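User: I'm preparing a small set of examples for a lab meeting where we compare how different chains pack in three dimensions. I only have the primary sequence for this one, and I'd like the structure in token form so I can line it up with the others. Please keep the answer compact; I'll paste it straight into my notes.
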Amino acid sequence: MVINEGAYRDKFSFIGEWYDNQASLIRRFNVFYYPVDDTIEMYDLKNRKTFVRRVKVNGITLDSFYIGCTLYILGRLVKIVDFACEDTRKLLHKDIQVTFAMIKPMPTNIAGKIISQFHENGLRLSKMKKSRLTAEDINVLYRSLIGDPTFAFLLEHLNGQLVYGMELIGKDAVSNCLKILGHRDPLKAEPGTIRALYGTDSVRNCVHAASSVKSAMEDIEYFFPPPPVRVMRLRLTATLSNCTLCIVKPHAVREGKLGNVLEVIDEGGFDVTALNMFMVENDNAAEFYEVYKGIVQEYKGMVEELASGPCVAMEIVAKDKSLNTAVEFRKLVGPADPEIARLLRPHTLRAKFGKTKVQNAIHCSDLDVDGLLEVEYFFKILDL
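Assistant: Understood. Below is the structure token output for the 384-residue chain.
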């Protein structure tokens, strides 16, 4: 995204959407960004009046705006869905696109490597969830291949299986994603591409990806439906048994560490049985961390970090069913302070990926009795 050539402008204009839980409807706004002082203003398009007067929102700059992003503005999660004027489009678009990709049934460590490869090639992860496919899902996502000889094999391979759906954002995202994947047949794929590295045939070729901008938008809308529709399509993959919660914090997601975290989790002896990317509102973050209020001095910072951007929540289950998942996973996560973790337990997640006691990469359930409760909080309350 080119910023400097437009820095002199009075303001940039976008279309934003906010899901109003109380009214159960989506509200649309003009969202204005003023680069001179990094302030934001919101105008209600339906009621034709100012909704948020010009105010500075910490952490939001011009580079935060792209089509498909979600911004946390004064307690509201606002999704930017379009440019509101041609001048803003011309200055900021710069071939930035959104695409859809779906990691087929793969070991968690390989899924982690694939996610890292996308990040390394300039594709930003903006939505993600683990879902169990039905025949109906496969018919929708592979609608262009229904008449293809391989379709029956795709249906057999994917029906009832767990996959990772992703919304990816970047320059020429659709063509770039396809290039990173390589030829549909792994035997014909360029060396170093994802399908050449991890695929076996044109059905078990690691990843499905949208072939055009139009199909990408259709796939994203289907896989990540808006809240009123989401409840109807919700298929909870969490086991809610001998489990614990793992959250990859917003700073670690932004820094592209999610894939590496998944590798360590798998190699550490744990399965990821449910996964979803969340934008946690400040009130929910405060409620979730309430047990730490007045106990740890980092409480305020922990709340602000969790609400600062997309995080990835996972239900974790030990591969060895005789183990207590929460207790054993807590060992893999390591001490809360990454500096101490690097000294005493350098193999742990916080030692590898943490920065400070607030930005320590990972939250996990501290007590075994809290594991199930925390999983339910994310996957049965926030996911609705």
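A couple of notes for your slides: The chain has a mean pLDDT of 91. The CA atoms of residues 264 and 349 lie 7 Å apart.

User: Perfect, thanks.
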